[in-house]
Each structure stands twice: as structure tokens, then as C-alpha cells.
Design brief:
With 323 residues, this protein is α+β, with helices and mostly antiparallel strands. Helices cover 16% and strands 32% of the residues. It is built from five helices and 18 strands. The strands form three sheets. An eight-stranded mixed sheet has the order 2-3-4-1-13-16-15-14. An eight-stranded mixed sheet has the order 6-7-8-5-9-12-11-10, with helices on one face. Strand 3 and strand 4 form a beta hairpin. The model has no long low-confidence stretch (mean pLDDT 95).
């Protein structure tokens, strides 16, 4: 990427959930992430949008969900991102296995892959979640939630990597390299790995192209989109122009209040987003009370009454009910 403009890594990953209370109980209760923002899907404001992250809502730690209730389930196949990978410290494997088992959830026995240990489980909607224990995670610059249920030394260190399943590793890989500026770091039979920015945990994507699959579908229990970070509006504009110049459709810049976004589909039909680092989740709530009320962008405030009437009531980790 010319001019020094690079994607810094994963900004957030958004999934589709079913029951909103079950989603909160798993990601805030079991995984111990902080629910830093309770909002709505700005494109469908009758649906919640939950943001789980570290104490401050740092980009790269932020798993977000649209809980759609009784919506159809997603289907594994080409054109989807099928799994979320979180990073944990290398010495936290025993803690996490015991924590998950103690809550009556099924967890696979940890398995070693190269220099990593993988703990595989599923969220309440069947979305595969993998905790990746590796030594690099010990130095990850995040802010553990000091008021949360997981001790700081075991707190999830953000995302480890993203993963997509596509019909052609070649075409999706060329897009990552030629348009988005990623670097290829590994190539196997049906998997190619790329890194962006400084590389390493939080800046990795695996492109999988197993033969014989059909078209996959986004739905409950699957990833909706993967968002990549840029430092500012100028960098975002550069990438938007580059995507257009290469013949791909991309949305105008959309102000999401806490960051600005553009959206587009890569050649394998997976939905990507490029989001700015700021202004961040502390824009409208102090750090002490992040995620304790329904937070709306100004343009949705006139709909607050209607939104509150259609959203199901949920209980937050602190016992407060919203909306």
C-alpha cells in the first residue's frame, strides 16, 4: 500500500445472535468481557447492538452482536466467516478450561497447534469460539476489566485472528494483498494466512478454501462482518478510493458515532468493514458507567420511545434492567 496507509488490524467482529439475554450471559458472564455499549443496529433500530470489549472498549478487543431472536440460523459454506478467535495468555489454559466447565458448558480438550494451545467451545447460538493461548498475548496492550469476573492475568487479550471460508483462496487472497495491503505469511493446501500492519496477534486472517462446499449463509450463530482498523478519516478515504479503483462496490462513509465506517464485500462475498479508531466509546459515557444504559446516536434519539417499547428487557451483569 503506497503512501504509508495500512490497516492496523482487527477493529471489531460482529456476529448474529438469537436470545439477547443468553448473549449477555455468555460474553459478559462466562467470557468476562465488559459490555461497554448497549445500542441498536443503526440500520434496523428495533434490534439491539451489544459491544463487548476490554475495560475501555479498545479497538481490537470488541466483539459485537445483533441479537435477532428467532431469526434463521446461519449455514457453514462459502462466503462466511465461521468462527471467532480470542487471544489469551499462554499460562491461562487451565483457568479457562475450568471456568467454562464450571458453568456447565461443553469445551473440547485443549489441543496444541505449533506454538499455540487452542480451547474450542461454542456460544449459546452455536457460534464456534476458540481461545488461543500463546506467549505473544502476555504483552498485548489491552485494559483488563478490573470490575469483571475474570482476573486481570487471565482476561481475554482481544482478537487473535479472523477467518473466512471462500471458494477461491486465490481471488480472496489477491484482494487482501493488492487492494488492502496484506502480506502472505503462510500457504497450505486449502488455507492461506495473511497479516496486516505490524502483524502478529490481532492482525491475522486465515483464508480457507476447502473443496466441495456449497454457499454459506449469515444468520444466528455466524459472523456478520469483520471490521479492520484505520487510524483516521484520511486513511479510510484512501482505502475507499483504492477499493473503487479496483472495481469493487463500497458504501459512502457512514458515521456510527463512536467510529466511522465503510462496508464492502471481498471477492468471496464476505462482508468487510473499515472503521476508524475514534472517537471511541467514551464519547458519550464515562468509563465508570460504560454499558449501563441504552446509548443512541443523536439521529436516533427521536425514536427512543419507540425503540424502548420494542426491545426486549434484559438484565445487565450489574443487575440493572434495560431498556
Amino acid at each position: 500500500m503506497s503512501g504509508g496507509f495500512v490497516l492496523k488490524g482487527i477493529h471489531h467482529i460482529t456476529g448474529v445472535a438469537g436470545n439477547p439475554q443468553n448473549n449477555i450471559d455468555f460474553y459478559a458472564g462466562v467470557l468476562g468481557l465488559r459490555l461497554v455499549k448497549i445500542s441498536v443496529n443503526q440500520d434496523d433500530p428495533g434490534v439491539y447492538h451489544f459491544f463487548y470489549a476490554d475495560e475501555r472498549g479498545t479497538p481490537g478487543t470488541d466483539a459485537t452482536f445483533f441479537p435477532y431472536g428467532e431469526a434463521p440460523e446461519g449455514a457453514y459454506g462459502y462466503g462466511v466467516s465461521p468462527r471467532i478467535y480470542f487471544s489469551i495468555p499462554f499460562d491461562s489454559v487451565d483457568y479457562w478450561v475450568e471456568r467454562v466447565k464450571s458453568r456447565g458448558l461443553r469445551v473440547e480438550e485443549p489441543r496444541r497447534a505449533n506454538d499455540e494451545v487452542l480451547i474450542e467451545l461454542r456460544d449459546p447460538d452455536g457460534l464456534p469460539v476458540t481461545l488461543v493461548a500463546h506467549k505473544e498475548a502476555d504483552d498485548k496492550r489491552v485494559y483488563p476489566w478490573r470490575g469483571g469476573p475474570v482476573p486481570s492475568e487471565h482476561f481475554i487479550r482481544g482478537f487473535h485472528k479472523a477467518e473466512i471460508v471462500v471458494a477461491s483462496c486465490k481471488h480472496s487472497g489477491m484482494f487482501l494483498e493488492d487492494v488492502l495491503g496484506f502480506k502472505k505469511v503462510y500457504e497450505g493446501l486449502h488455507r492461506v494466512t495473511y497479516e496486516t500492519g505490524d502483524g502478529g496477534s490481532g492482525a491475522i486472517i486465515d483464508v480457507l478454501c476447502p473443496p466441495g462446499l456449497g454457499r454459506g449463509y449469515v444468520g444466528v450463530g455466524s459472523v456478520h462482518h469483520i471490521a479492520w482498523s484505520v487510524s483516521d478519516d484520511v486513511s479510510q478515504h484512501v482505502f475507499r478510493e483504492r477499493i473503487l479503483e479496483n472495481g469493487f462496490r463500497v458504501t459512502p462513509v457512514i458515521d456510527r458515532k463512536w467510529f466511522k465506517s465503510i462496508y464492502f464485500r471481498e471477492p468471496g462475498h464476505v462482508l468487510y468493514e473499515i472503521a476508524t479508531l475514534g472517537p471511541g466509546f467514551l464519547l458519550d459515557e464515562p468509563i465508570e458507567t460504560l454499558g449501563t444504559r441504552l446509548s443512541l446516536p443523536e439521529w436516533l434519539e427521536p425514536m427512543r420511545g419507540w425503540i424502548g417499547s420494542v426491545l426486549p428487557r434484559v438484565k445487565l451483569p450489574n443487575g440493572i434492567e434495560v431498556p
